[in-house]
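Q: What does the assembled structure look like for these inputs?
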Amino acid sequence: MNIKYWLGLYAVLIRSSVRSRMQYKLNFMLGTVLAAIIQIAEFLMIAIVLNKFGAVKGWSLHEVGYLFAVMTLSKTLYRTFASDVHHLETYLTTGDLDQLLTRPVPILMGLMSQNIRLMPGELLQGGTILIWTIHGLMDSGQITWVVVPYTLLAIVTGAVILFSIGLATAAVGFWITRINELQTLTEDAAQTAVRYPLVLYPSWLRSILLIVIPVGFVNYVPSLFILRGEYGSWLLYGTALIAGICLALSLKLWKFGLTRYQSTGS
Amino acid sequence: MRESEAMIEVRGLHKSFRTPVVKEGRFAGLRTLFTREYRLKEAVKDINFTIRKGDFVGYIGPNGAGKSTTIKMLTGILHPSAGNVKINGFDPHQQRRQVAKRLGVVFGQRSQLWWDLPVKDSYDILAHMYKVSAAEKERRLGELAELLDLKEFWLTPVRKLSLGQRMRADIAASMLHDPDVLFLDEPTIGLDVSAKRSIRGFLKQLNREYGKTILLTTHDMDDIEQLCDRVMVINHGQLSYEGTIVQLRDKIGLPTRIKITFHGPVQLPVPKGLSLPIELGLDEKHTFRIIRADGCEVHIEANRQQVKAMDILRVVGSWGEVADIHMEEPDFEDVIHRVY
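A:
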């Protein structure tokens, strides 16, 4: 294993991917702008609801904004670096995975370096909301600047969890090929659900969002300690541990799934 | 001697695909959704073969016979349901990356290049991937560019290449890291005559001069006839023939067609009351057939495994004064058609 070789190769692949994308400039710019507008519209929805009703089960607007921002940033991190893990279905139905399999590069690395997506819209939106909420919460004296490194840690572990969920869902595609709807459930719906504090939901749903599809660990669980000082800092390390376990399990499923790859007729 | 080393070894190879049974009749779609019935399609059944270093082997068979499935198992894309594959002693599934380093793969139907980037960029990326040094890359690309005439589209994005250009670019890409083994899945599909010829010339050179082991699938029998030392025929997932092209012709035994033109009248030895075609014999075992006769022209079919051309000519000479003889070997396409 030669770290320098792999990093160099990854950089080359990423650069090629970005250059490929830049061939279609209008598409790229339009995509970026639209994504940003959609993101802001989504947050405005939540903001309007919260403004109308004040706090949700004891969670203030700033706190909910924090949940929202951490989720957005984790997701942005995951989807920037692993865009095509989410789009594996295309590779399965067209047989495009074939060409990654004939190269002396780990499949996942091959996949993750294809079609890398720059998501400045999401980054800007998530970053702005995060700064605004942290600023607001610090003004009210609820938190101090130490939340900043904690928050960065939570974003990274969150991205790992989202990646694991995405990878496991994609791996199921080796058996069932079409995974669009499954992704809607395990990724889109689940991620949207935890933009609100989990206390809002009945306990069975809360259990699902913490155990079956552990998206709750992306923002809700860390924020219990980061914003409210509940439990203790071990909550963060526990979250990191869970992220590690999720990653290991999803990689195992992925490896096993690859042996079931059927390609397509030609 | 290195020449006799086994490069590709395939033992008891099986691949079956599971597809849900599609229901018919009322609510067919819904019932298919909830069915637990699967049909097991055996794409490849118990295939065994060995390809030695430096061999150029053609792998042929009708559509859906299992050619591509076999190639995909050899290149590590598909995992076999049973059996095993060894490429230069390595298993393409357990040691996928080691094997991939020494392998060149070209799929005629699908480009291996970076679709939106200039051809040249793909080579830079591949050189990095296969750890080809800059000097080595320049040297090989120089050679490949000349042999395959790459310079004219060097800076064109791959998506804008013509099929012939793309195939040449793809073959060059598969050779950049100087692999030992080359797998070509229908490399001449859809190409015009001159593009086919230039690709064949290049492949021949790779095999004869550089000693590359090549396995080629194709539907173009000229590819096989001009390039391959050996052919393997697969049908319904099983190898139905393996051997040299000459042996294959002999085994099938299609007749050679002979057209004889005479000066003046012909006395055919046709007994009264019989019409053409008729069977004639030198003796019990050595026979040939007169197919038809129009004026001075007589058409004969003979299996050259049974009867020598000279013997036929001796007989024919007694019918009249021979002006011209035209012999046509059985068309290879026809031979293959018989094997299928």
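DSSP finds 13 helices and no strands in chain A.
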